[in-house]
Amino acid sequence: MTQLNRADTSTKVKSKEFKALGFIIFLLFPILTVTGISVYGFVIWMIQAFGGVVAH
Fold first, then answer.
1. Could you give the CA distance from residue 42 to residue 16 in angstroms, rounded to a whole number?
2. For the chain: N or C, fewer Cβ within 10 A?
């Protein structure tokens, strides 16, 4: 009986871990990447808008 509960718990834990991994890989990382690139582009745009284009 105890081993059945351990196996069941282990399966549930693995399932939760895979769901968390999928969330991180397929949602969190892409969202953070797009957000980071967008913020960087916005900062550069604002620097050029208020400070002028950097001379070469």
1. 37
2. C
CA distance linking residue 42 with residue 20, whole number of Å: 31
Residue 19 Cα distances to 7, 34, 42, 52, 53, angstroms = 18, 22, 33, 47, 46
**pTM for the whole structure:** 0.72
Beta-strand ranges (E) seen in 1-56 are: none
Token couple for 34: 């797009």
How many Å apart are CA 23 and CA 29, to the nearest integer? 9
